[in-house]
Specification:
By secondary structure, the protein is of the alpha+beta class. About 45% of the residues lie in helices and about 25% in strands. The strands form seven sheets. It has a five-stranded antiparallel β-sheet. It has a five-stranded antiparallel β-sheet with strand order 7-6-10-9-8, with helices on both faces. The termini are far apart. Residues about 810-825 have low confidence and may be disordered.
């Protein structure tokens, strides 16, 4: 007999002894089974043991037929399954259980296992033992113990232990009378202990691997004895740190309050508490703790599950604050607010509404909504509220009259919204009422003065208007309606504020007119009804009532969109002129540098042979310098400061001449179309520069059509009238030759179109263009007195239109042949240039060709040298741009000294057409910069040989 109060070690020793006895019993039973025809006494003893077992014991044949079932099963189920299939009788299934171990038992193996029955979903511990039947077959004897409770966590563990103690105590008296029964009881207890240990291990595994915040603590000391990984993650401590903590270290309560709550939890099965816990980071979180007692190793500890409710607490606090804010708004709003129920009774009214109508809260609550509505507005009010309740309409806004307590009426602007429950049923309606009586009186006063201004409204070509202070349009003339695209009916509900493109303009306008009393010539951008933006000029004054109060604004508005566009064109033209001037100045200085680089390089090359060292390098320097010189010429073409030779030409003859050259530039994937107008007028132009225009535009079109397309060049005679010139500031009236170059390429967007003619602006990738091609085209067209436009959209190709003024005098292109010159010259040349390096280079070139050279650094010094040596000097070379006295002024003074003097002008460009004037009868020619040795020597020789 097992005594109560024994330690676990003593109980374990006793169980070991019982196990030995069980083994001996099993051996004896085996002997009994092998002996056929054993005595009735052994059978009686075995049957008593089986019937005394608190579980199910049955024997079945190899075919699963139940041969025997103990009384425990029959008593519990009220059914004797003898003769049925075991899987039907035990588990209520139609087929052999998938976990069946019958085959292993047939092989003589004893199998122990656990299974959950599909019949009642309970867990059972099963021992299957092979039994030799008298017919020689091996039958299966199954001992089944219900162990469902072991599967529970802490609660199951506690109940299982209680149940174990009860079973041990109950089995003690039985063991005194029957060794066999004692052995069975010991076996059951051993199996139960094993199941309990397994259950405890499973509970420990769940606890130690759970992300839920849990810990076990001593309710007396408050020390944390164990914690889940979720607790470590939540509090920010590792397991060792957390186990060294006491609850008072993470809890915001005082130690006394905390101890009192732990004692409450210890005395009850489950208890919920609200705490504030401090994390390792110092952050304080609101938590809900579910705590209760748990018995471990004979000690009563507290098992706690912690839930973070910080967000919920904050949401509750936010809701509370929101309700307080709503109440504050309701009570302190400057406009009337009321709540009405389904029966039209006023449930609530804020102080503003009470003041507006003159009632007390108690007086107004006793009235129906219809009592305070003007009789003429009651039918509409009842209809709208009924439709709102039935869900036929949503929130609505309406103006109506309200009866005050003194019997007078006021106008109110009412906004109504429904209040519905969670199922969408109407519960009440909220109304917001603004007193608009003053606005109504203002509108009435404004309407009374309508006749005085009607003639002005109807006859004015500008838009005439007046509005209330809130921007609502009260009246406008037809010109105003046409300007904004409104009908008369639409204008009645139109607010002028809606027309402002920038709402800040409205604020600035209102501040200005309220401060000064009027606004004159105020420029702003407005939007028409269809969204189109227009530039407007606004002049307005305040509109006052009889008492001098501001009731609105009135004024005149004018559409200046076209004027603004012309101003922008003028600004663009001035910008291009300024860029051209700047580019010309830079090109002049750059030309001087290139003159030195190319001149000295050519001098050095002229002194070397092709096989000499550095000969090829110098040739590359010269090539790069000439490429730079070409870029300078493009910049000068943009700034219209290159020398231009104008001749009367017909573009119809010029365009076909380029077709062969275009065939070498344009790939076959691009179709070239030429369409010429037979009536095209002659223009005064430089043929070479016209070719340059066509080449640049054709190359741009080619680059815009990498996958092929169509390039179209056409000419047409057009007459530009005054209307066209009014919208194109650079155009001139009269007959023009129109040259159009269009393509079907990638096109140009609006932003690029505005800058397409600026120098160095390009939409190509780096290294694929300099950005000077179209700038040069623009400069050439302007130099010819014409203008150019571009029409394009991204993805839709581009069309460049060049308008050149017609020339009435026909003529032929005539180019004189170059005169022959000698390789070496004789005579004295005066060279004037403000750049020392350029001056030194020119001197060296001319000396090398046999001339005697005198030099001057500006025009005044050159004049003084010429006056002193005029009989000796054969030729004067003057730089056009020099300090103190420029080349043009120096030429004038030299011709005064000697009208027969021979002078050459040196320049890289010609500002303001000065070079053309100088060459017409006064100078003998032009020496272009940067210097080319052959060109300067030829020019000098031609000038000396001239008469």
């Amino acid at each position: 007999m097992i005594e109560q109060g024994k330690t676990k070690e003593e109980l374990f020793d006793e169980l070991l002894e019982m196990q030995h006895r069980i083994d001996e019993l099993e051996a004896a039973l085996a002997t009994f089974r092998r002996r056929e025809g054993a005595g009735q006494e052994a059978e009686t003893t075995t049957k008593a043991m089986i019937e005394a077992f608190d579980g199910f014991i049955y024997v079945c044949s190899p075919n699963y037929d139940v041969e025997f079932m103990n009384e425990r099963f029959i008593q519990r189920t009220g059914h004797d399954p003898t003769g049925e299939k075991c899987y039907q009788a035990i588990h209520d299934v139609k087929e052999v259980c998938p976990w069946c171990v019958n085959e292993r038992v047939q092989n003589g193996e004893t199998v122990r296992w656990e299974v959950q029955s599909p019949k009642d979903n309970r867990w059972y511990y099963v021992v299957n033992t092979p039994v030799r039947h008298r017919d020689g077959a091996t039958y299966k004897m199954a001992v089944i113990q219900d162990v469902t409770e072991r599967k529970q966590a802490e609660e199951v563990l506690r109940k299982a232990r209680d149940k174990l103690e009860a079973k041990v105590q109950a089995r003690t008296s039985e063991l005194e009378s029957s060794v066999q029964r004692l052995e069975i009881e010991i076996s059951v207890r051993k199996e139960t202990e094993t199941a309990l240990r397994e259950s405890e291990q499973r509970f420990r595994a769940v606890f130690e691997n759970n992300h839920v915040v849990m810990f076990i603590a001593d309710p007396e000391t408050g020390r944390i004895e164990d914690a889940s990984p979720g607790a470590c993650a939540f509090y920010g401590y590792d397991m060792k740190e957390l186990k060294r903590k006491e609850l008072s270290e993470i809890n915001m309560l005082s130690p006394e309050q905390l101890h009192r709550r732990m004692q409450e939890a210890k005395s009850q099965q489950h208890r919920y508490f609200d705490f504030q816990h401090c994390l390792a980071s110092g952050e304080v979180r609101d938590v809900e703790v579910c705590a209760g007692p748990i018995s471990i190793d004979g000690r009563t500890l507290l098992f706690s599950v912690i839930t973070d409710v910080t967000d919920r607490k904050r949401a509750e606090q936010a809701l509370k604050e929101s309700e307080e804010q709503y109440r504050a708004v309701f009570d302190n709003a400057g406009i009337g607010i009321n709540v009405t129920d389904r029966d039209m009774k006023l449930i609530q009214a804020n102080p503003a509404l009470l003041k507006m109508l003159g009632y007390t809260d108690e007086e107004l609550r006793r009235r129906a909504l219809t009592d305070i509505i003007h009789p003429d507005d009651r039918a509409t009010t009842l209809h709208n509220l009924d439709a709102l309740m039935r869900g036929l309409i949503g929130p609505y806004r309406i103006e109506k009259r309200y009866r005050k307590k003194d019997g007078s009426f006021i106008w109110g602007d009412l906004s109504v919204s429904p209040i519905r429950d969670g199922e969408g049923k109407f519960g009440a309606a909220v109304g917001v009422i603004a007193d608009i009586s003053e606005r109504k009186r203002t509108e009435e006063a404004l309407r009374k003065s309508e006749q005085r201004y009607r003639n002005l409204f109807d006859e004015s070509r500008d838009g005439v208007w007046w509005t209330a202070r809130d921007g609502l349009l009260v009246e406008a003339n037809q010109a105003f309606l046409d300007l904004f695209g409104l009908t008369r009916e639409e204008s009645r509900n139109w607010n002028l504020i809606e027309g402002y493109r920038d709402p800040a303009d409205r604020v600035r306008f209102q501040n200005m007119i309220e401060r000064n009393g009027s606004v004159a010539d105020y420029e702003l951008k407005h939007k028409k009804k269809d969204g189109t933006e227009i530039d407007c000029l606004l002049t307005a004054t305040l509109r006052l009532d009889e008492e001098g109060k501001v009731v609105g604004y009135q004024g005149i508005i004018r559409d200046i969109t076209e004027r603004t566009r012309l101003e922008q064109q003028l600004l663009q033209s001035q910008k291009m002129e300024a860029i051209g001037t700047l580019a010309g100045g830079i090109a002049h200085d750059f030309n001087n540098l290139l003159t030195v680089i190319l001149g000295y390089s050519e001098l050095i090359v002229s002194e070397k042979n092709e096989g000499d060292r550095d000969y090829e390098d110098l040739k590359k320097v010269i090539h790069a310098g000439r490429s730079a010189a070409d870029m300078v010429q493009q910049i000068l073409a943009f700034s219209r400061k290159t020398e231009t030779k104008f001749w009367p030409i017909n573009l119809n003859k010029q365009v076909p001449q380029l077709r062969k050259m275009l065939s070498r530039l344009i790939p076959r994937t691009i179709e070239v179309q030429i369409d010429l107008d037979s009536d095209l007028p002659t223009v005064n132009a430089d043929p070479a520069q016209i070719d340059q225009i066509l080449m640049n535009l054709a190359v741009n079109a080619r680059d815009a059509m990498p996958n092929g397309g169509r390039l179209r060049i056409e000419t047409k005679a057009v007459v530009l009238d005054e209307e066209y010139c009014n919208t194109h500031i650079e155009a001139s009236k009269g007959l023009h030759a129109l040259l159009t170059v269009s393509d079907t390429g990638t096109g140009i967007d609006k932003a690029a179109s505005d800058r397409i003619f600026e120098p160095f602006y390009t939409t190509k990738k780096p290294g694929q263009g300099t950005g000077l091609g179209l700038a040069m085209v623009y400069g050439i067209v302007k130099g010819h007195g014409g203008h150019i436009t571009v029409h394009s959209e991204a993805g839709r190709g581009a069309a460049f239109k060049i308008y050149l003024p017609a020339h009435q005098v026909e003529g032929e292109l005539d180019v004189a042949a170059s005169a022959a010159f000698s390789a070496f010259g004789i005579g004295t040349i005066l060279l004037a240039d403000d750049e020392e390096l350029v001056r030194s280079l020119g001197e060296r070139i001319l000396r090398k060709n046999g001339y005697k050279i005198l030099t001057a650094c500006n025009g005044r010094e050159a004049l003084q040298i010429y006056q002193q040596n005029k009989d000796e000097i054969s030729l004067v070379i003057l730089d056009l741009i020099m300090p103190v006295m420029d080349g043009k002024q120096c030429l004038d003074e030299i011709l005064k000294v000697n009208p027969q003097a021979k002078v050459l002008i040196a320049s890289g460009y010609s500002p303001d057409g000065a070079t053309k004037d100088i060459l017409e009868g006064r100078a003998k020619g032009l020496v272009k910069k940067p210097y080319d040795i052959r060109q300067i020597v030829q020019s000098v020789r031609e000038a000396l040989d001239s008469h």
